[in-house]
Write a structure and sequence with these properties.
mainly beta
Length: 333
């Protein structure tokens, strides 16, 4: 079409009632293109055999390593076999099927994907870097799916914020989600989130909704870490010092959650010249036990060393009930 950015096309095809064969070459620029060969077999279950698949992108050239990539589908069955795209030591693979009436068996794997060049093909403004491993396995039937997934992001950086690794595991079975997510700033410093929560699933209506009345449990734990680790997220901050420790647990149900938490900050320093903020000797000890929130200590000094002010606070807040601010309700189109 006239609106297309593709400046070079070459398509050759042979067809009969039983089979259509095509060779397609699309070139958008000198380093972006698609080259493929396709064999299409029309029938009640339609089959597409792709003996050649090569995708050229600005930072990489991907090619399927097999000559037997096969896609099959009908109204109730979708299958992909032998997808194995490779680019040097990176790979994207998929094998298996989704059956809307019987059991599913599908695996998807991404290995050692360099995030920034990959993301730049879709969003050049997202400053996310690192090497990603991701595995997904789908089993069970369509009304009661079983999902296992693993995530590992290494040598990661978001803008100027660096961390060693982000790892995660998720399992969905019997409408219960178990998760474990760990962010490692260094080998010694980490933040860990784990637990479970119930999920109402109605695949036929394409609705996934958190169950507010069934039990859930989430735990957040951090080793002591320096506040200056977060400083790159806010360029206006000239200094951010101190050591933070966090522990929190949420249980019961989402409609009536129970919270236990403890947060401490020792010997903090925060300086934001654009706002005229210069706080020193910041200390915080906050604890929460269900409906009771206790500020055991909050103190700081502000201003210069010659002319400064002190602030000290402590106290307790009791609330009748704890209601969640929001909950996730995802409806798929």
């Amino acid at each position: 079409s006239a609106a297309s950015d593709v400046y070079k096309r070459q398509v050759t095809a042979n067809y009969s009632q039983e089979e259509i064969q095509a060779k397609v070459h699309l070139q958008q620029s000198d380093n972006i293109g698609l080259h493929t060969e396709i064999q299409y077999f029309p029938a009640e279950t339609q089959r597409i055999l792709i003996p050649l698949l090569k995708i050229n992108l600005p930072e990489a050239s991907w090619q399927n390593t097999t000559d037997s990539l096969l896609i099959e589908f009908n109204d109730k069955y979708y299958s992909i076999q032998n997808l194995d795209l490779q680019n040097e030591n990176q790979s994207i693979s998929a094998n298996g099927y989704i059956d809307l009436q019987q059991e599913n068996d599908l695996t998807i794997s991404l290995q050692n994907i360099e995030l920034n060049p990959f993301i730049a093909n879709f969003n050049e403004q997202l400053p996310l870097y690192g090497n990603l491993d991701f595995n997904l396995a789908l089993a069970g039937n369509f009304d009661s799916p079983v999902v296992h997934s693993k995530l590992k992001l290494q040598n990661a950086k978001y803008g100027k914020l660096q961390f060693q690794a982000l790892t995660g595991n998720m399992q969905l079975q019997d409408q219960l989600v178990n998760i474990s997510l760990q962010l490692q700033r260094t080998k010694e410093d980490s933040i860990l989130l784990n637990g479970y929560f119930p999920l109402n699933i109605d695949p036929k209506a394409a609705v996934f909704e958190l169950n507010r009345e069934e039990p859930f449990a989430l735990n957040l734990t951090s080793s002591p870490f320096a506040l200056n680790w977060l400083q790159p997220l806010y360029p206006e901050i000239k200094q951010a010092k101190g050591v933070i420790t966090m522990q929190a647990a949420a249980t019961n149900t989402l409609s009536q959650p129970q919270l236990n938490a403890a947060v401490s900050l020792q010997n903090g320093r925060l300086e934001i010249p654009t706002l005229g903020v210069d706080y020193r000797k910041i200390n915080l000890l906050l604890q929460a036990d269900n409906n009771e929130i206790v500020l055991q200590d909050f103190s700081l000094q502000s201003g210069s060393k010659k002319k400064s002010g002190d602030l000290q606070l402590s106290g307790k807040l009791v609330v009748d009930t704890i209601e969640p601010v929001s909950y996730t309700h995802l409806t798929l189109p």
